[in-house]
Amino acid sequence: MAQTPRTLPSRILLRQPDDWHVHLRDGAMLEAVVADTARQFARAIVMPNLKPPVTTTALGTAYRDRIRAATPAGVAFEPLITLYLTDALDPDEVRCGVGEGVFTAAKLYPANATTNSAAGVTDVANIRGVLAVMQDLDMPLLIHGEVTERHIDIFDREAVFIERTLIPLVRDFPGLRIVFEHITTAEAAAFVAESGPNIAATITPHHLLLNRNAMFDGGIRPHAYCLPVVKRETHRLALVAAATGGSGKFFLGTDSAPHAVEDKESACGCAGIYNAAHALEAYAQVFGAAGALDRLQGFASDHGPDFYKLPRNSRQVVLERTPQQVPVSIHAAGTSIVPFLAGTTLDWTFAGFADQR
Ligand code: DOR
Ligand code: ZN
């Protein structure tokens, strides 16, 4: 039964969540953003689309060290590092990085699909050797699922990717664990739901809260632009149903992707939405509106570790039903970032750990 606002609880306790898809960047931007993620999430799958990308065990180790160094003292946060797949990647690099405990997963960016993906994979045929090793090692493959052909409508690129690339890939590597990242369409939600237990998906707060009108609301809105782009309302509703439906195949992945304000508000603005500062509250907004707050813990805290075969977190966090306004801008790296939902009011406030209150 749908919960009306009057029946919403005044606080919720949740097992501490993890973020199964985040961009922490590097250098000054890493220093500026990592605390927002580390404050709420025990672990995060950190995306490897740096300049240069994380394509070797040595680069992965060094990046993990920089993230740890940038994490505020006393905050328990574990970055889980991902390997950036390229056409030329040696399968031995995968064996080495997994053997040394550096890489949790590997990320497939179709070349030129999104930010810093120029070195990505031009054809899945080029990485068959790597995928075979990953399947052997039971290492999850994380996929940015969009075709890149410019003649294909940008709103159709995810659905076309399923037909052309994902279905053959799943057929050829039936034992490979795959996370279809940041799904945006009813087609993707259905594909994942109907696939075997080795196929799962992350869903972002922005794809749960926005439809494509948000990019054109009274004028062009660069802060609602990300890739894959938000789709029409029917797709948003399908994603909400998937996230709140209780299936273990769907879990939290913010795809929080910070860009300096001047890079977003530009004639060719970057793709990416920064939602890390209020991520859990934004998801709570979605689950509250759907009358499904009792399923938030599964989505945010249980399904991800279960899929990754990692232990669930033991601490509990508290969300209080205290309204808060999202700042219109956040200082970062000598400039500012306009966060997701800037200036709007959220119903919930993250109130720390239950054992520290
Ligand atoms: O919107 C996006 N931003 N989508 C991606 O796939 C990459 C990300 C980024 O790194 O900025
Ligand atoms: Zn991403």
UniProtKB/TrEMBL annotation:
<dbReference type="Pfam" id="PF01979">
    <property type="entry name" value="Amidohydro_1"/>
</dbReference>
<feature type="binding site">
    <location>
        <position position="144"/>
    </location>
    <ligand>
        <name>substrate</name>
    </ligand>
</feature>
<comment type="pathway">
    <text>Pyrimidine metabolism; UMP biosynthesis via de novo pathway; (S)-dihydroorotate from bicarbonate: step 3/3.</text>
</comment>
<keyword id="KW-0862">Zinc</keyword>
<dbReference type="GO" id="GO:0006207">
    <property type="term" value="P:'de novo' pyrimidine nucleobase biosynthetic process"/>
</dbReference>
<feature type="active site">
    <location>
        <position position="255"/>
    </location>
</feature>
<keyword id="KW-0479">Metal-binding</keyword>
<comment type="subunit">
    <text>Homodimer.</text>
</comment>
<feature type="domain" description="Amidohydrolase-related">
    <location>
        <begin position="19"/>
        <end position="280"/>
    </location>
</feature>
<comment type="similarity">
    <text>Belongs to the metallo-dependent hydrolases superfamily. DHOase family. Class II DHOase subfamily.</text>
</comment>
<protein>
    <recommendedName>
        <fullName>Dihydroorotase</fullName>
        <ecNumber>3.5.2.3</ecNumber>
    </recommendedName>
</protein>
<feature type="binding site">
    <location>
        <position position="49"/>
    </location>
    <ligand>
        <name>substrate</name>
    </ligand>
</feature>
<comment type="function">
    <text>Catalyzes the reversible cyclization of carbamoyl aspartate to dihydroorotate.</text>
</comment>
<feature type="modified residue" description="N6-carboxylysine">
    <location>
        <position position="107"/>
    </location>
</feature>
<dbReference type="InterPro" id="IPR004721">
    <property type="entry name" value="DHOdimr"/>
</dbReference>
<dbReference type="GO" id="GO:0044205">
    <property type="term" value="P:'de novo' UMP biosynthetic process"/>
</dbReference>
<dbReference type="InterPro" id="IPR002195">
    <property type="entry name" value="Dihydroorotase_CS"/>
</dbReference>
<feature type="binding site">
    <location>
        <begin position="23"/>
        <end position="25"/>
    </location>
    <ligand>
        <name>substrate</name>
    </ligand>
</feature>
<feature type="binding site" description="via carbamate group">
    <location>
        <position position="107"/>
    </location>
    <ligand>
        <name>Zn(2+) 2</name>
    </ligand>
</feature>
<keyword id="KW-0378">Hydrolase</keyword>
<dbReference type="GO" id="GO:0008270">
    <property type="term" value="F:zinc ion binding"/>
</dbReference>
<dbReference type="InterPro" id="IPR006680">
    <property type="entry name" value="Amidohydro-rel"/>
</dbReference>
<dbReference type="GO" id="GO:0004151">
    <property type="term" value="F:dihydroorotase activity"/>
</dbReference>
<dbReference type="InterPro" id="IPR032466">
    <property type="entry name" value="Metal_Hydrolase"/>
</dbReference>
<feature type="binding site">
    <location>
        <position position="23"/>
    </location>
    <ligand>
        <name>Zn(2+) 1</name>
    </ligand>
</feature>
<feature type="binding site">
    <location>
        <position position="271"/>
    </location>
    <ligand>
        <name>substrate</name>
    </ligand>
</feature>
<feature type="binding site">
    <location>
        <position position="144"/>
    </location>
    <ligand>
        <name>Zn(2+) 2</name>
    </ligand>
</feature>
<dbReference type="GO" id="GO:0005829">
    <property type="term" value="C:cytosol"/>
</dbReference>
<feature type="binding site">
    <location>
        <position position="182"/>
    </location>
    <ligand>
        <name>Zn(2+) 2</name>
    </ligand>
</feature>
<feature type="binding site" description="via carbamate group">
    <location>
        <position position="107"/>
    </location>
    <ligand>
        <name>Zn(2+) 1</name>
    </ligand>
</feature>
<feature type="binding site">
    <location>
        <position position="227"/>
    </location>
    <ligand>
        <name>substrate</name>
    </ligand>
</feature>
<feature type="binding site">
    <location>
        <position position="259"/>
    </location>
    <ligand>
        <name>substrate</name>
    </ligand>
</feature>
<keyword id="KW-0665">Pyrimidine biosynthesis</keyword>
<feature type="binding site">
    <location>
        <position position="255"/>
    </location>
    <ligand>
        <name>Zn(2+) 1</name>
    </ligand>
</feature>
<feature type="binding site">
    <location>
        <position position="21"/>
    </location>
    <ligand>
        <name>Zn(2+) 1</name>
    </ligand>
</feature>
